[in-house]
Each structure stands twice: as C-alpha cells, then as structure tokens.
Amino acid sequence: MHYLDHAASTPVRPEAVEAMLPLLAVHPGNPSGGHAAAREAKTALEEAREAVADVLGCGPGEVVFTGGGTEGDNLAVKGSARARRASGDGVVVSAFEHKGVLAPAHRLEGEGFRVGEVPVTRAGIVDLDGLAEALDDRTVVASVMLVNNEVGTIQPLGEVARLLRERAPRAVLHTDAVQAVPWIDVADATRDCDLVTISGHKFGGPKGMGVLVVREGIALVPEIEGGGQERGLRAGTVNVAGAVGLATALRVTHERRVEETTRIAALRDRLAAGLRAALPDLFTNGEQGRKVAGNLHVGFPGVEAEALLLMLDQAGICGAAGSSCSSGATEQSYVLAAMGLPRADALASIRLSLGFASSDADVDACLAVLPGLVQRLRDRTASVA
Amino acid sequence: MSGGVDSSVAAALLRDQGHDVTGVTLRLWGGDADAGCCSVADVEDARRVAAQLGLPHYVFDFADDFDASVVSPFVAAYVAGHTPNPCVDCNNTMKWGRLLDRALAIGFDAIATGHHARVETMHGALELRRGADAAKDQSYVLARLGPPQLARTLLPVGELTKADVRAHATRLGLRTAAKAESMDVCFVKRGERRSFVAGRAEERPGVMVTTNGQVVGEHTGVSAFTIGQRRGLGVALGERRFVVDVDADAATVTIGRHDDLLCDSQPLRDLRVLGGELAPGSEVLAQVRAHGEALPARWEGGCVAWHRPQPRVAPGQVVALYRDDVVLGGALAA
Q1: Radius of gyration (Cα) for chain B, nearest Å?
Q2: Which of B112, B98, B93 is nearest to B6 (CA)?
Q3: How many structural domains is chain A composed of?
Q4: What's the pLDDT tens digit per position in B113-153?
Q5: Which single residue of A199, B49, B201, B326 has CA 20 to 30 Å from B209?
Q6: Cβ–Cβ < 8 Å for A61, A110
Q7: In CATH, what class is B262-333?
Q8: A324 in reach of chain B (CB within 8 A)
Q9: Considering the domain B5-114+155-172 in this protein, what is its CATH number?
C-alpha cells in the first residue's frame, strides 16, 4: 500500500511507540495521585509537557493537553469568546478554517455573538483586506489557521496579528496549527498568537491527543469540567501515554524538520512534475510558492475525483478529496468553494499528501498508476456518455 | 448497499458466486428527514457489512444531483397537481444513472442491488420479472429502466423470499439481519410532505368544488391533494368524498363520489418499453401502485383500456405493464 494521505493522519513514529509502551503496559499510576506510581506518571507527564513547550516556544505552564485538534479548537474559540463576553461580541474566522473552528463559531452565533467569516483568495490565502474589515474593537477572538488542511497554504499570521493589534485591541488570536507542525517552525510562526492548537497524529504521534497552547494571562471558559486537571481548562485524567507519544513525536519531528521537509518537498515536486508531464492539462490548487512541502492538490479536468480515488485505492494508493465526514462520504469541499474554485474543478480535484513515512517508492507507484487511471476514466466516461 | 438486509445479502451472494464485488453506498440526502432507504445513518451498517464480507466499500456523494433530479421534480410535480414517484425517479437517474455510469467508467461490468425482482434471459432476450416473493416484489419501481440498463444489472435476492433473505443474513451473522424495512420516501418525513413542498415552492390558494361546480371549501395549495385522496379534505358533506380532479392552473380541487373516479381507460404518456412485444391491442396487466394488484387491460397505444372500470390514476404516477410476471415497460399516468 502506498499511503499518500498524511494530511489526514500519519503513522506513529517508532520513537513515539517506544516511549509510549511502558506507560501503556507497565506503569499503572494516575498522575494526580500521591504515591510512587502516581509520581512516576506525573514525572512522565510533566517531562512531556516540557518537551512540548520547548518545541512550541512557550512555557510548560502554557501547555494544555487535549483530546486532539478539534477539542483544542473548540476550547480556544468557544472558551475565549465566552470568557470575554463582557468586553465584546465579535468572533472572526477565515472562511476555510477547519470544521473544528467553524462549528464552534456557529455555536457562538447562536449565543448572540457576531461571527464574521473572512473571505480567502483564489491562491488559498486569507484576504487581509477582508480581515481588516471584519475586525473591530468589539472583536473578542479571531481564529486563522496557520496551514490550510486541504490545499496546504501557509497563512500570513504575522500580518494577521498586526491587523488585530491595530483594529481589534480586545481580541485574542487563535491559530489552528494542526497541519503546520511537520513543515514549519511553529514556535516562530505563532509567536504573536495567544492560543495555538496542534494534534498529535498529524506528525507521528497518536490519534486522539492534542495540545492547546494557552499563553499566560489568557482566560478561557473550560469545555470539560471536573477535577481541575490541566489548570482547570481540561478536566479528566490526562492520557499520559498519549502525551508522551505526542511529545516524543514532536521532538523527533522538530529535530528532523529541515532535513525531512527538504526530502519530502523533493518527492512532492517529483510527483507533481511527473504527473504534469503525463497529463499536461492538470491544474493545481493553492499557490505553489506558499504551500507546505507535503501537499499536492491537483485536479484533472473531466475526471470525477470520487471515481479516481476508488481506482487509486484498488491500485493500492491512498489519496483523498475534500475532507472526510464521519460517514466516509467525501463532502463537497467548502475550502475549494471558499477559494472560488469552480464547482466542476473542485469535483475533479484530489489531495495527495506526503509525510515523514513517504518514500521514492510511493511516488514511483503513483506515477506508474495515476496517469493511466485518469486516461481510462476519461475514455470510458466518454464512451458511457 | 443501502444498509438494509436485502442489499447486504445481495453483496454476500455475489461474493459467494465468485464475482469481484465492491460495495457502494450513495449519499443522496442530508436534510432533517434523513430516513428511508439510503440515509447517511445507514451508511455505517453498509460499511460494517461490507467489512464483514471482506469487500471494499465506498460512499458516493450524489446529493446535489439527487436534489436536481429527484427532489426538485418531486416538488414541481405536486405544485403542478401531479403525483410523482421519487423512488422510480431515483432508480432511473441515480442508481441506474449516475451510479451505473460511474461504475462502467471505473471498469465494473454491472451494478447489483437488493431489489426483489429477477433479470432473466428468455429466448435470447433479457427480461425483468417479478421477484420470487410476491408480497415483496419490487419490479414496479424498476419498470422504467431501459434494456441497456437491464443488461448491466444483477438482482441476486430476486430468487429469494424475504424470509430466505433474513435467514441467510442470520446464517452469515450480518448485523442487518433483523433490521426493519424502510417504507418512506427518504427525504420527507411521514406526514410532512405538505410542509416540505411549501418550504420549497410558492403555492396559490384556491377553492374546492364539487363535480357540478359548487364551491364547498378553500385550500392553501393544490400540492396537498392527490387524485383518489379521501383523508384531509377539510369538508364534511355527509358521505365519503374523494379528490377526483386537481387543476393546478386554476388552483381548483374537485371532489366527488367514488363513482366519479371510475374510468374505462387510463391515458398514459412517456412509455418506456423494457422488453417483449407490446403491439396495440395486446392484453396486459397494468399495475398502478408499488404494491398494488396488476389488473387486466388492453394496451391501446397511448392508454390502457380496463376490462372493468377502475379509479382514475393520479397524473405522474407510474403505470407498470406486465405479461404474466414479466415487465413489458413503464409509463406515466397522463
């Protein structure tokens, strides 16, 4: 099987598996307890927290372990808006945020907040003029992702933060950095952000484990209440093994980032060039110079992406289109729609996403198979019609 | 694979016959009334059954097409005073339309469903026959397919009774073995057709008259009425009254006695011939409802002449024509 869907999820890095195993199989302790076993768990958890803080450029006390990216987004958007209700009512998000941000924003709308959805450009970049218009001194939270999950474009967070300081002095800035970790220096890119979401399984950590960075002094109303864990922001016994797995994967990813990014960019570029050579009429989505190294979002005019993905799957190649909903159906991509892509082009587009586990063999297999499938699909579609 | 027991068993039978089978569930509707035969809620059952059978499974999202090809015509038909059959439209445009086209484009040879009907070769020609289980026969909803579609169709449960199907599912341990049947149109909740239509179309109020022109009531739109309807007329005239005519242009609903509904012949339009001989003057059996009785009639080319007078069929309803248990074709009541 050739796995070209790293933006959906990655394998767990061997280092992370190794680090997690003792915590799953040997150590029984609850980190909140008071005995030796508990202390062991507590030590593992706090070391993980420190490792995460090191990579993300924050203090250990600013790291809140969550149950994944969507949970982090929910806590950041709803938690900060609700905590700042007295100082305003504006919530601003980009139109192509992950559903983990958009759904909470819509929930807040039902609670009386004004929600502004900022348009994005055809290049896949948040429209800064639109953002400036949406912000005002009643804005309490703005959320702009660092890297878009479908087209892989890197958003200008520095500019976003500057606009916020100028126009929305009461607002906190959240960024969903879930898709950014393997590719860019998140600590540097998010230094102006008050809240930063990451998710373990996008960079070789376990699924269902994430971090929300909450800068000191940023108040949040918690979503999950109970025993006061994670500074009262996320109650419940922390998944210690998950935290250790995430921290280990984050450390390894950080150490190898430059080298891996260079290697994967070369693989991605070879894949793109090979496909273009075989299928000159293909088009790509998202401005090429502003994308992360692992993302290739490519369309084949006249081809139905759903059919092509099925054929790729039959040939042992895993790709994706749109974002997967819980039923496994591919939803019409609201991301591509927000970018102004014509509907027919959106339905003809697929995402091939590479990651640390990708190899030359994956690219070779895809290049050997995909052009022929596109051609067959076109020929047969013509003969059926 | 709808997530029901029939298509689950169909997939299992084909697999065991040695076919290279891939499961597909169509995503057709995501609205509030997401029930019926292909709701997203059933996708999980289909996926689990496919996994249990060792078959790959995919979801195809045809929701936009479904809206344009089935839901919008459904609304337009009611507003025009007609009575559509959305399941037949869905079969023609979605399952034997987009799904079949895509399947052939990908390289599959045929599509299969869990319909209770049989595709058989007789005298060198393909025929669509009623399912072996007379009470569950679904050939009516397939009566408007064409011969090219039939040639690419497998209906593996058509040879079985529903009890056989459930028993087979139980033997295989399929989670859908005891699942209840869906009876409703998938996009409209039972009893909410009227509000559904009202939510998607403008309607004019009008009057209700008797067959001799006397105004006996008012209504807010003709879409609430279908020829032959007895309930919900909102008038009390001392004896049972039926809708005998719906004139959308005049926004007038005519009510009358059961006798006023009876006709010697039923005009038809848009006949699609599926197989067999259908020369004018032929004796046929005509079925006007999915689970109605097939009644003897003579095909006159443009209408069927009933052997005994029958109630008028609402315009837009499918009239399936049979010889014995073989489908000759399907037309729409004019």
Answers
A1: 21
A2: B112
A3: 2
A4: 999 999 999 888 899 999 999 999 999 999 999 999 999 99
A5: B201
A6: no
A7: mainly beta
A8: no
A9: 3.40.50.620
- Bridge partners (DSSP) of residue B204 are none
Whether residue A280 lies within 8 A of chain B, CB to CB, comes out as no
Cα–chain-centroid distance for residue B237?
34
Per-residue pLDDT tens over the stretch A43-79:
999 999 999 999 999 999 999 999 999 999 999 999 9
Q: What proportion of chain B, given as a percentage, has pLDDT over 90?
A: 78
Q: How far apart (Å, rounded) are the C-alpha atoms in residues B93 and B96?
A: 6
Out of B37, B38, B87, B90, which one is annotated catalytic?
Answer: B90
> Measured at the alpha carbon of residue A295, what is the angle toward residues A325 and A184, in degrees to the nearest 5?
110
Residues β-bridged to residue A214: A195
Residues A116 and A74 in one domain: yes
Regarding whether A236 and A124 lie in a shared domain, the answer is yes
For residues A207 and A334, state if they share a domain. no
Identify which of B275, B279, B323, B327 has the alpha carbon closest to the alpha carbon of residue B301.
Answer: B279
Class of CATH domain B203-256: mainly beta
Structure tokens at A150: 């479908």
Q: Is B107 near chain A, with CB under 8 Å?
A: yes
Do residues A52 and A77 lie in contact, with contact meaning Cβ atoms separated by under 8 Å?
no
State whether residue A304 sits within 8 Å of chain B by CB: yes
**Cβ B186 vs Cβ B148: under 8 Å:** no
The whole domain housing A336 covers 2-8+257-384
For B40, the token pair is 């997203």
A355, two tokens: 């990651």
Collapsing DSSP to helix, strand or coil, A271 comes out as helix
Report the half-sphere exposure of A167 (CA within 13 A, side-chain side).
Answer: 21
CB spacing of A329 vs B105 below 8 angstroms: no
Half-sphere exposure of B206 (CA within 13 A, CB side): 20
Other CB atoms within 10 A of residue A191 CB: 14
Please classify residue B104 by burial: count the beta carbons closer than 10 Å to its beta carbon, then call 0-12 exposed, 13-18 middle and 19+ buried. middle
Query: Most B CBs within 10 Å: which of A1, A313, A327, as the mutation test of the B interface?
Result: A327
- Domains of chain B, by residue range, sit at 5-114+155-172, 203-256, 262-333
CA distances from B319 to A140, A257, B135, B314 (A): 62, 67, 18, 10
How far is CA B308 from its chain centroid?
Answer: 25
CATH number at residue A316: 3.90.1150.10
Contacts of A300 in chain B (CB under 8 A): none
pLDDT band of B33, cuts 50, 70, 90: very low
B38 among known catalytic residues: no
Indicate the pTM of the whole model.
0.91
Residue whose C-alpha is closest to residue A58's, from A173, A201, A216, A172: A216
Q: What is the mean pLDDT of chain B?
A: 92
Residue A196 CA to residue A214 CA, distance in Å, equals 7
CATH of the domain at A18: 3.40.640.10
What one-letter code names the amino acid at A348? Answer: A
Beta strands in A168-319 (DSSP E): 172-176, 195-199, 210-214, 283-284, 295-299, 317-318
In whole angstroms, what is the distance from residue A339 CA to residue A348 CA? 15
A239 and A308 co-located in one domain:
no
Per the CB < 8 Å rule, is B107 touching A381?
no
B262-333 matches B5-114+155-172 in CATH topology = no
